[in-house]
Amino acid sequence: MNRIFLSGDIHGELEYGRVVNYFEDLALYDEDLSKDDYLIILGDAGIVWDGGAADRKVQQALRDLPVTTLWLDGNHENFDLLEEYPEDIWHGGRVQYIDDSIIHLMRGQIYEIGGKTFFVFGGGITIDMNLRTEHINWWADEMPTDAEYEEGLRNLEKAGDKVDYILTHTCPESIAYEMESDIHPGETPLQKYLEMISESVEFEEWYFAHWHRDEHMGNFHCLYYELIELEVSV
After folding, report:
1. Which residue among 41, 60, 74, 104 is buried most deeply as judged by most CB within 10 Å?
2. What pairs with residue 162 in β-bridges?
3. What is the tally of structural domains in the chain?
4. Of 119, 102, 131, residue with least CA distance to 208
5. pLDDT at 127
6. What is the pTM of this model?
7. CATH number at residue 190
8. pLDDT tens digits for 175-232?
9. How is 61-111 classified by DSSP, letter by letter?
10. Is 158 a member of any domain?
């Protein structure tokens, strides 16, 4: 059975050491991990960022993990570089292979992993975009397109509006308010879309990141420092 781990933002070389340390510590007493097990980073991975030394450093560190790294995009990714990677199909949904053990999970897709279904929808807003330069350290593609929104709904409809897990970078609007988070108006369309999904789709647990905190509200979970293993049973 596949083991599945979840992490919040790692921001490339800034915080990738957190997941490296986690698996180094885990390996001291758990030798059963393999590339058939998965770490899923919930956006702001920074795995494709500068196209240079920083990316090579982070990607090599992730290749060296005993597990395969899956990641959804957040608002801090280099979307110009990312779109150069070809698309493929993996476990039922569209992906982009950064390499064999680093795989980008795309917006609006449903994947079957370890006998469970995961609906994935990345994206978010950069609150200090006015201080950044487009195509250098900020990309308008951080927010989803209408086509991506529509594809997500179509895929959920095909699944009977029922999945086991939902993985996103930001969260539904009501959850952001419950967290008393500072909400940027530019992110409102995405949060409202996720709110609609939270009300119309049957799911077990919803995991997200973005807010740089660890907080658990019923079956909604915000991750940052906390790295968890899903208790997946088939």
Report:
1. 41
2. 202
3. 1
4. 119
5. 86
6. 0.96
7. 3.60.21
8. 999 998 777 889 999 999 999 999 999 999 999 999 999 999 999 999 999 999 998 7
9. HHHTSSSEEEEE--SSS-HHHHTTSPEEEETTEEEEEEETTEEEEPTTEEE
10. yes
